Amino acid sequence: MRSAFLILGLLAPAPAAAQRLGYEEVLLPAAPDRPAAPAPLAYAGVPVDGEAVHAFYGDRIEASPEGNGFAWDVSAELGRGNHRLWLASAGEGDFRGGLGYVEAQALYSHPIAAAGLALQAGVQRDFLAPRRTWAVVGMQGNVSTPLYVGAFAYYSTRSELTGSLYAYYDWEPVRNLVFQPYAGLGFAAEDMPALGLGRGATDFELSARLRYRIAEPFAPYVGISHTRLIGRTADLARAAGDGTEATNIVFGIRSYF
Questions:
Q1: Which residue among 21, 149, 157, 241 sits deepest, i.e. has the most Cβ atoms within 10 Å of its Cβ?
Q2: Is 111 helix (H, G, I), strand (E, B) or coil?
Q3: pLDDT, tens only, 86-137
Q4: Rounded to 5 degrees, what are φ and ψ at 239?
Q5: For the chain, what is the largest distance between any 2 Cα atoms, rounded to a whole number of angstroms?
Q6: What is the dihedral of CA 257, 209, 253, 77, to 10 degrees?
Q7: Going by DSSP bridges, is the β-strand pair 132-142/218-229 parallel, antiparallel, or unpaired?
Q8: Average per-residue pLDDT in the chain?
Q9: Beta-carbon neighbour count of residue 42 at 10 Å?
């Protein structure tokens, strides 16, 4: 369930929960065990001084008919003014084999732009083997109303350093119908066989989802997601006899309140 990385051109200037609580791959064969980026969700922006903030973002609650896969990516934001607590959880698995990856984050979040871009820092915990605890630092949020980006670095208690970049764009061609392309890219500072990661770029995801807002906080969607291991990470997977890419149709619900 380890799980989320607009088009690669959007990633150039710009991964987790910080490393991919952002659109995690569904049913990627032998997905590397790495933290996921924080859920890329609509952000409340900078409120009036002293204004309380409390929100829930169900950015991704989805299933794939291929292999009975499922995944989630949800967050909650609490606080006041420019000082907030960002709580997030992401995971994935399949209905027959159970959970494959579960993570949770607790991040301090400080908005730095009216659109919603925020600096964040805190802790991430991976609950299934290989278990890890990570220090997380980075930023995520809207740089404009439709464009959301994220960039994070993670440092584990075992001195492992990884990172992620991701971005998506919400395009509304007609009222209540939103097309969302997404791209994400992962990195590792060195070979980490225990995590299934090789030095350099480790994997990428390109996906597109089309959702319809039935009501303001409720939008079902359908999409397609392509994930691929690359570089030394792909070599490690091939050496172990595992697959390196997957393409899946997904169905899900996006909700926030």
A1: 21
A2: strand
A3: 999 999 999 988 899 999 999 999 999 988 899 999 999 999 999 999 999 9
A4: -60, -30
A5: 56
A6: -30
A7: unpaired
A8: 84
A9: 16
